[in-house]
């Protein structure tokens, strides 16, 4: 692989951020982009501004010929083939590059969905699981954008519960074909895609992936759905009526389709997270421009504290989202770089992606909920105009909503986060249980924290506290419910919320520290303020989620003593968040956009 990452961090295990302390030098941040990363960012940004933005109206009216042409043009620039090996027509660059492109192309929800489905879930199954013949046959067209890909897992009766699909595959009498029967639902790009990764159960049991060409006999695409948002993308059902698929088009092994389905969804999740952050950057720019010219009560509305606090929250969130997204892909690249030669490169990349499943789900949930916040406040800043189609806030608001539903709903992803960590803890892969015991002993014995000094000292202490609270809450809940905790979804969800916010605040603080080490504390005032604001709010969420977990896991004296421990853990001087927001807002309003320096 052509690794572009300038500063690969040391290899870190997925989910280990909860129990390990990390230093700024161990995390990859946008400030570590090398020249090639910056060049690709610029290429993607220019493509978005010149090709996507001027064509939004046409794409919203479903000019799919144009959409295809834009995917092909993106392919010409190399933007569609970054995850495809060079021998099959791609560029095979690092995952930082993949995230940069998803982030910078995010100027139109419809095109982002099209491009994401094509380059990610429509292409990667063949990259990671295809045979040599399949790769040679299909990947060059997918990488160039001449062929458009789609991924068909969901059905009308099984979306989240995708392994419970009804589509069946049966081997023909001559053993040359599988005959597929069933239907698929909500398939992105279906209206114009050429190639479909379709999941079906062989003999009603063995969940398997197939590569289906649009012109295979027995294959049909249904009518376009009328959607709330991402109207510039195509979403249709597929109908498989004795669809004849050559046996050579089985992807991976019969009965192992779940590995394909879930592996590529992880990539979809980190790209979606990066795209949500990119989209938020565009939204804040638009909101600032509007707020600087709209007048009320003799002032521009950008002067009002209640408008400024929204812009400040957006900016601090973008800083945090960038930190989380690039930290995650940086870890992936570092892990790939350190793997041995014993297995094929693609098998290794697959394993690395699985290793960071928790971080991918965190990015997906956090990114999609953050962009929902941003577009909601963008509508609010636009006031009545925010509710009107001619202004950008209305479409952004509608387009963002799908992000919480596809690539695994946020409920499913929350269950993945806690479930994956618990599974690793039980198997000993992640020493979570000893860490929980250590924290329980420490808090019960009333040991005091060591004093932290230096830049962002209090925020670093808050991050350490969030980790302790998370382990303590998980300890209380696992003691109470043992294995049955898997059935306590609200508790699983609350623990996931603690994990998500801990990763977010730590990423923001580490990024600000890294910037301060590079540029000096004085020159880093704005990033430090953004990290501080994010960390202060995150700890409140962590505390709130922990309270819920503890109250649902203990009663009477036990409850009272555990709540006393939580209160002790949560002792900190409140920050002047009003002042922090004012400072951040001043900077972004003056700059006219989100800025770091
Ligand atoms: C515009 C659009 C594009 C899409 N593109 C594609 C595509 O390209 N390919 C594809 O295969 N699919 C695609 N989908 C389908 C999408 O992935 C599913 O809609 C999604 O996975 C949710 O499945 P569902 O709609 O069946 O909801 P359900 O699974 O019925 O879920 C309904 C609600 O119940 C909750 N829920 C379900 N199970 C649980 C559980 N175990 N615990 C707690 N809560 C639960 C969910 O979180 C959700 O809130 C797309 C959907 C849309 C709307």
List the helices and strands and how they pair.
Elements: H1 35-52, H2 56-60, H3 64-76, H4 95-104, H5 109-121, H6 124-129, H7 132-144, E1 149-152, E2 168-171, E3 177-188, E4 195-202, E5 206-213, E6 219-221, E7 235-246, E8 250-251, H8 257-293, E9 295-296, E10 299-300, H9 305-338, H10 345-355, H11 357-382, H12 392-400, H13 410-427, H14 432-445, H15 457-481, H16 489-519, H17 525-551, H18 556-569, H19 577-591
Parallel strand pairs: 1-4, 2-4
Antiparallel strand pairs: 2-3, 3-7, 4-5, 5-8, 6-7, 9-10
Helix pairs in contact: 1-4, 4-8, 5-8, 8-9, 8-11, 8-12, 9-11, 9-16, 9-17, 9-19, 11-12, 11-13, 11-16, 13-16, 14-15, 15-16, 15-17, 16-17, 17-18, 17-19
Bound molecules: flavin-adenine dinucleotide.
């Amino acid at each position: 692989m052509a690794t572009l990452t300038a500063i690969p961090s040391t290899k870190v295990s997925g989910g280990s951020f909860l129990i390990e302390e990390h230093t700024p030098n161990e995390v990859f941040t946008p400030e570590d982009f090398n020249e090639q990363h910056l060049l690709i960012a610029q290429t993607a940004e220019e493509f978005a501004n010149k090709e996507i933005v001027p064509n939004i109206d046409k794409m919203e009216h479903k000019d799919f010929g144009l959409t295809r042409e834009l995917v092909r043009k993106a392919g010409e620039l190399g933007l569609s083939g970054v995850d495809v090996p060079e021998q099959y027509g791609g560029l095979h660059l690092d995952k930082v590059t993949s995230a940069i492109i998803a982030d910078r192309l995010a100027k139109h929800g419809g095109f982002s969905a099209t491009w994401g489905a094509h380059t990610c879930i429509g292409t990667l199954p063949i990259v990671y699981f295809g045979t040599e013949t399949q790769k040679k046959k299909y990947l060059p067209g997918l990488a160039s954008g001449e062929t458009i890909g789609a991924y068909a897992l969901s059905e009308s009766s099984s979306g989240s519960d995708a392994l419970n699909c009804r589509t069946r595959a049966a081997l023909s009498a001559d053993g040359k074909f599988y005959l597929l029967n069933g239907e698929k639902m909500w398939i992105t790009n279906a209206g114009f895609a050429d190639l479909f990764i379709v999941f079906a159960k062989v003999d009603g049991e063995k969940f398997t992936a197939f590569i289906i060409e649009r012109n295979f006999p027995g294959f049909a695409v249904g009518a376009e759905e009328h959607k709330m948002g991402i109207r510039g993308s195509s979403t249709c059902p597929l109908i498989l009526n004795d669809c004849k698929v050559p046996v050579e088009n089985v992807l991976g092994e019969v009965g192992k389709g779940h590995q394909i389905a879930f592996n590529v969804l992880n990539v979809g999740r980190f790209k979606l997270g990066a795209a949500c952050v990119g989209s938020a950057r565009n939204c804040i720019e638009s909101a600032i421009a509007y707020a600087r010219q709209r007048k009320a009560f003799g002032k521009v509305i950008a002067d009002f504290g209640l408008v400024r606090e929204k812009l400040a929250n957006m900016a601090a969130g973008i800083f945090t989202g960038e930190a989380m997204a690039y930290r995650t892909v940086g870890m992936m690249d570092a892990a790939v770089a350190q793997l041995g030669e014993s297995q094929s490169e693609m098998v290794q990349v697959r394993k690395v992606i699985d290793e960071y499943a928790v971080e991918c789900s965190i990015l997906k949930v956090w990114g999609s909920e953050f962009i929902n916040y941003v577009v909601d406040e963008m509508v609010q800043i636009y006031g009545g105009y925010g509710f009107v189609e001619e202004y950008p806030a209305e479409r952004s608001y509608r387009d963002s909503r799908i992000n919480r539903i596809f690539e695994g709903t946020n409920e499913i992803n929350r269950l993945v986060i806690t479930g994956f960590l618990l599974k690793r803890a039980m198997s000993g892969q992640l020493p979570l249980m000893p860490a929980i015991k250590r924290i329980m002993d420490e808090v019960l014995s009333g040991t005091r924290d060591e004093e932290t000094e230096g830049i962002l000292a209090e925020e670093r202490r808050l991050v350490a506290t969030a980790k302790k609270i998370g382990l303590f809450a998980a300890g209380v809940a696992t003691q109470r419910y043992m294995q049955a905790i898997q059935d306590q979804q609200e508790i699983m969800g609350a623990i996931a919320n603690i994990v998500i916010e801990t990763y977010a605040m730590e990423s923001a603080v580490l990024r600000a520290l890294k910037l301060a080490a590079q540029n000096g504390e004085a020159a880093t005032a704005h990033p430090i303020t953004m990290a501080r604001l994010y960390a202060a709010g995150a700890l409140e969420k962590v505390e709130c989620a922990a309270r819920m977990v503890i109250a649902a896991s203990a009663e009477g004296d036990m409850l009272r003593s555990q709540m006393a421990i939580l209160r002790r853990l949560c002792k900190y001087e409140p920050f002047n968040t009003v002042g922090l927001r004012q400072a951040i807002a001043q900077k972004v309003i003056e700059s006219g956009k989100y800025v770091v320096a």
